[in-house]
Amino acid sequence: MAAEDLTALRLTLELAAVSTLILLVLGTPLAWWLAHSRFRLKAAVEALVALPLVLPPTVLGFYLLVALGTQGPVGRLIDALGGRALAFTFAGLVVGSVLYSLPFVVQPLENAFASIGHRPLEVAATLGASPWDRFWSVAVPLARRGFVTAAVLGFAHTLGEFGVVLMIGGSIPGETRVLSIAIYEHVEALEYGRAHLLAGGLLVLSFALLLVVYSVNRKYVVGKS
Amino acid sequence: MTLEARFRMTRGEFRLDARLEAPARGVTAVFGASGAGKTLLLRAIAGLEEAPGGYFRIGDEVWQSDDVFVPTHRRPLGYVFQEASLFEHLSVRGNLDFAERRRRRASKRVERAQAVKLLGLDNLLDRAPENLSGGERQRVAIARAILASPRLLLMDEPLSALDLTGRAEILPFLEDLHHELEIPIVYVSHAADEVARLADHLVLLESGRVTASGPVAEILTRVDLSPARTDEAAAVVEAVVAGDDREHELSYLDFPGGRFTVARAARPIGSSVRLRVLARDVSLTLERQEGTSILNIFEARVEELADLDRSQVAVKLDLAGVRLLSRVTRKSAEALELAPGKRVFVQIKAVALLR
User: Fold this and answer.
1) Best B80, B81, B98 residue to mutate vs chain A (most A CBs within 10 Å)
2) What is the pLDDT of residue B279?
3) Which range marks the domain in which residue B305 is found?
4) Is A133 in contact with B102 (Cβ distance < 8 A)?
5) Which of A123, A137, A142 comes nearest B81 by C-beta?
6) Which residue of B has its CA nearest to A223?
7) Domain check: are B45 and B163 in the same one?
8) Which residues in chain A are contacts of B89 at CB distance < 8 A?
9) What residues of chain A lie within 8 A of the CB of B103, using their CB?
């Protein structure tokens, strides 16, 4: 594999790993809240979280570009704070990926938390476990399959990101040129062999990851019955 | 020492307006039909339901009042739910560890070995909850609750999800619990036989309201209350094993009103037992019957009569301070001229030894 393609592969894996980590940290409390809240506007929050499922990634990328660019509201804020604009940077890609893959992490977690129900948490409370204790000692272990599913889907979905990257990342080698962009450029340059190598690799990897998710869930179903 | 609860709350169409005070020792049974609000009351005591304006204290420890609300995890209680809710991600041992690690420091300790022995869990410790029978699961749940060293044990129909075998398996454990631990228990149930067997104090809950509260023998025999007016109406009698008749395989049980002769009880002489006498097994005569196969005949005084319907009458009887119930037809009551103060003989066809 060519050096620049290796760089693209490394960058893609890095982006997916960092994004998944951030998604788990942010998505867990959000999913917990969605699973337990009786807030009236909860449906609106759920719809907002689900938006990336149906929106063309270019739409998401376009608004991110507008927001994160030097003239955008977020861009200006960062500029005022002495930071560097996020558009066309790796950090910008991370922000885009987190939004883009949010439903793939939040939804499995929300379902897992909801399926635990209130009872095990109530039992833990009667045994003297504080809310924080209950979360770590009861909710997380009981939702572990949800966490595996969320992490794998978040990671796999970020691997395949294209539209958002194209809009806010461009194709800067080592910074924003991820696999999907590299494949696109190879095809444009009629380098079908190199495109095949990357595309086939991504196909096999994605299949393997999804296989993990479905075998975990199969066990879940069997374990329940 | 007593416990006191006052809760008013509305859930949909249902209103709970319960006030009760009961001794903070032994078993206090909250008895009522399904939908009477028993579970809601128990959950409010545990702090699992929001009940603004509610009040609860045990001894001088206030768990809830207008300006105090101790969250559930800081209340020294044990709670056994209707379906044994074991942590499925932990083994039996892990479930017990969970409780032991969070046990309340200041309270009376229940040792692990004692809990395991009391509930017969020796051979189950390494099993996963999903591989346990219903009765076994409930035993683990009870052991887990007492391992938290609670000041008060709350039990929400712990037998109702079990079949007959499961119930029979758990009941002796519950009795041992009652005798070996000095933890007061509030026990919610709609089963008259369970209540007669376990309760020391009885609280009647009907449509969200407490209609009576008192010692179990007294409440069960009050003819103005619902338990005495059902087909299951029965009195409980405390007695002491006085001796055996080995030849006939019988035991003699003394109570203030006389001596019961029952099928031999494998209990040492001098031990106390509780008997249950169903109202429909008690018949009345004016003269002591001779030449009858009935062994248990006692002299009694009619204390009170209450019509049950157009044909049946409940009779409350006083046998030297012990109350029994009899159910007779109105025709018989008229023929015998039954009235408060009248001297009669009671003939008891069957007696159940409860414990």
Assistant:
1) B98
2) 95
3) 234-239+272-353
4) yes
5) A123
6) B130
7) yes
8) 141-142, 144
9) 128
Q: Which of A118, A121, A123 best tests the B interface by mutation, with the highest count of B CBs <10 A?
A: A123
Determine, yes or no, domain membership for B254. Answer: no
pLDDT at A221: 41
**What interface predicted TM-score (ipTM) does this complex get?**
0.87
The length of chain A, given as a count of residues: 225
Query: Domains, chain A, ranges and CATH?
Result: 3-224 (1.10.3720.10)
In eight-state DSSP terms, residue A137 is I
State which residue of chain B sits closest to A129, comparing Cα positions. Answer: B73
Structure tokens given for B337: 């001229």
pLDDT digits (tens, 9 = 90+) for B286-345: 999 888 899 999 999 999 999 999 899 999 999 999 999 999 999 999 999 999 999 999
**Structural domains of chain B, count:** 2
Residues 6+ apart with CB under 8 A from A43: none
A102-113 mean pLDDT: 94
Q: Which chain B residues are within 8 Å of A140, Cβ to Cβ?
A: none
Q: What average pLDDT score do residues B344-349 get?
A: 95
Chain A: residue whose CA lies nearest to B73: A128
| pLDDT of res. A218 | 61
Identity of the residue in B78, B85, B103 whose CB atom sits nearest the CB atom of A120: B85
Q: What's the CA gap between A86 and A91, in Å, rounded?
A: 6
Report the pLDDT value the prediction gives residue B105, as an integer from 0 to 100: 67
**Residue indicated by tokens 């519950």:** B174
CA distance B235 to B354: 12
Is the four-CA dihedral A212, A215, A221, A225 of positive or negative sign?
A: negative
Query: Over the stretch B115-159, which tens digit does the pLDDT of each residue have?
Result: 898 888 999 999 999 999 888 999 999 999 999 888 999 999 988
Domain CATH number, residue B338: 2.40.50.100
Q: Report the candidate in A134, B350, B129, B238 with the shortest Cα–Cα distance to residue B121.
A: B129
The model's confidence at residue B177, banded by pLDDT at 50, 70 and 90, is: confident
A144: nearest CA in chain B? B89
> What is d(CA B168, CA B190) in angstroms, rounded to the nearest whole number?
16
